[in-house]
Design brief:
Oligomer: single chain
Distance between the termini: 47 Å
Helix content: over 70%
Number of strands: 0
Structural class: mainly alpha
Number of helices: 4
Shape: flat
Order of helices and strands: HHHH
């Protein structure tokens, strides 16, 4: 069965267009429902987390070192560490654990 790439691209473009245009045409006024506003507030953060978390686990040679670096990074950032400090700590944890974990 031959695959028509142009048909796939057309369908993808239509779906992408509808996803972006429908909210603009359906919702004209300000959203006043507190639950919907709270849901929409967290959508960018959840999307970023969903895209980033698998990459963190697959970034190192071992998932164990990746999880340890993730825990260390979350801990340091929780206590007010800067982005540079968190990055350096994460890299150091992976570097040190790679020497000891087979």
């Amino acid at each position: 069965m031959p695959r028509n790439v142009y048909l796939y691209l057309l369908i993808m473009a239509a779906v992408t267009y509808l996803i972006r245009v429908l909210p603009l045409t359906v919702i004209r006024g300000e959203i006043k429902n507190k639950r919907v506003r709270a849901f929409l507030y967290y959508v960018p953060y959840v999307t970023l987390a969903v895209m980033t978390f698998p990459a963190i686990i697959d970034a190192t040679g071992s998932p164990l070192t990746a999880v340890a670096a993730l825990i260390a990074a979350v801990g340091l950032s929780w206590f007010g560490g800067s982005l540079l400090q968190v990055s350096i700590l994460s890299c150091a944890v992976v570097f040190i654990l790679d020497k000891f974990v087979p």
